[in-house]
Amino acid sequence: MKFKASAKYQIPRGTDDLMPGEVEIWQWAEAKAREICRLYDYKEIRTPIFEYTELFQRGVGEATDIVEKEMYSFQDRGKRDVSLRPEGTAGVVRSFVEKKIFAEPQPTKWYYMGPMFRYENPQAGRRRQFHQFGVEVFGSSDPALDAEVISLGIHFFESLGLKGVRAEINSVGDPEVRAVYREKLIEYFEPYKAELSTEAQGRLYKNPLRILDSKDPKTKEIAQGAPSILDHLNEPSRKHFEQLKQYLDMLGVEYVINDRLVRGLDYYTHTAFEFMVDIPGAQASTIGGGGRYNGLVEEFGGPEMPGVGFGIGLERVMLAIGEQKVDVPVKTGLDCYLVTLGDEAKLYGAKLLNEMRHAGLTADRDYLDRKLKAQFKAADRLQARFVAILGDEELKQGQINVKQLATGEQETVKLEELIPYLKERS
C-alpha cells in the first residue's frame, strides 16, 4: 500500500527541512564563522526569536518592506503585539541597551547566528524562514572598524573556499546629509511620479532613498539618472568614506563603489556595503550586507553610541557553495560496523560498541537481527571503513575478526586490542 502525505502535514511554503547530508555542510560553514569570529575577538550573543513588534517598527523603519509587508506579527495571549525577528541587529541593540553594556569598556564586539522570518515570495536563496550569520560592533566611530567588519566578512567567504566574492560600498551620509539628499531626490523624482511603480510612489515623500533600491524595471531606469549621494556628502561624511577606502586598500580588500547602494533598512549612517557573488538561478547576487548605524542605540533608549555590523544569508552561502562545487571536508561513514553472531556475542557487543564510541570512534551495529550478508550490506551502505565480526566462539577466545572493506583484508585481533587497532588505522 502506497503512503500519500496529507497536505495538512506538509512543510509550510518558504521553509526547508535540512536533511542529514545537508546539515553537515551547514555545521561546517557555521563552525568556520565561529572560528573567524574567535580570531577577531567577537563573542557570540543569542537573542529571542520573537520580540515586541515596536522594536522592529522603530529600529528597522516603518517605511521599509520588512515592516510594511514581510513581518510575521501576532498578538500573544496577553494581547501584546509580538513579531518573529526579520533580522538580527534590532534585537542585539535592544540587548546592548537593556543590559547596560554601554556602561562597560568599549568597543563591544558580538556575533550571532540563527533563523529569521520574512513573508516573502519564496525563491532560490530567499526563504520565509532563513538563517543569518551577523556581527555587530558598538562604541567607536572609527572607519577602521567599518573596514574590519567588511574584512571579517570577506575572510569568512575565503575560509569557505568561495571565489569571486566582492564588496560594494557606499556612503549614505549622516542625518544632515540625508535630509538634504532626501529633498534632492524628491525634486528629481516628482516629474516622473506617474511613471514610478505604485510602491515607489508611496515612498516618494516618506523615504525616497528606498526608490533607489527598487526592483521595478521602469523605476530602476528612472533612478539611474537620480543625483548621487556622494556629490552631497558634508566634510565629516566625505572624510569617513575616504578613510574607509584607505583602510580597505591597506587590508587588500577588493571593493567597488556603488552610489546607488542604500540597503533596505532605515538605520544606516555613513557606511553601507554589500557582499556580492554570482549565483545563477538566484534573483540577486547579494550574499550579505550591512553598514554603520550611529543613531540606533540612542533610538532604543541608550546613550549616543555608534555601531556597525553586517548580516550574511546562509541559504545564499549554501547556494554559492553548491554552484562553485566547493569541496566541503565533511567526514562521512563509520569507523567500524559491529557484526555479532550468537546471543552471548550480541550481549557483549553492546558493551564493545559503547567502548568504541567513548574512545571517539564512529560505530554502529545491526538492530534488526539480519543475516550476516545483510549486515555486510548495511556496513557498505553506511560507508564503514572496518567491519568487526564477533561470534560466541570468538568471544570465548577473547578475539574478534576485523575486515577492512576497501581492501578486503581481514585480521584476527585480541578484544582488548580492537580499539587501539581501529584508532591507529582510522
How does this structure look, described?
This protein is α+β, with helices and mostly antiparallel strands and 426 residues long. The protein has 2 domains: 9-174 and 234-323, Bira Bifunctional Protein, Domain 2 (BirA Bifunctional Protein, domain 2, 2-Layer Sandwich); 336-425, Anticodon-binding domain (Rossmann fold), CATH 3.40.50.800. The protein has 15 helices and 16 strands. It has helices at residues 23-39, 53-59, 65-70, 89-98, 143-159, 175-189, 198-203, 217-223, 235-251, 296-299, 314-323, 343-358, 372-381, 392-397, 418-425, and strands at 43-44, 50-52, 73-75, 81-84, 108-117, 129-138, 166-171, 255-257, 269-276, 286-292, 307-313, 336-341, 363-365, 386-391, 399-404, 410-414. The strands form 3 sheets. It has an 8-stranded mixed sheet with strand order 1-5-6-11-10-9-7-8. A 5-stranded mixed sheet has the order 13-12-14-15-16, with helices on both faces. Strands 2-4-3 form a 3-stranded antiparallel sheet. Strand 12 (336-341), helix 12 (343-358) and strand 13 (363-365) form a beta-alpha-beta unit. Helix 1 (23-39) runs antiparallel to helix 5. The longest helix has 17 residues, at 23-39. It is elongated, with a radius of gyration of 28 Å.
Q: Report the major sheet.
A: 8 strands, mixed
Find the CATH superfamily of the largest domain. Answer: Bira Bifunctional Protein, Domain 2
Which structural class best describes the helix and strand composition?
alpha+beta
Q: What is the general shape?
A: elongated
Domain count: 2
The helicity comes to: 25-40%
Distance between the termini: 43 Å
Into which percentage range does the β-strand content fall? 15-25%
Subcellular location: Cytoplasm
Protein name: Histidine--tRNA ligase
GO cellular component, one term: cytoplasm
Subunit structure: Homodimer.
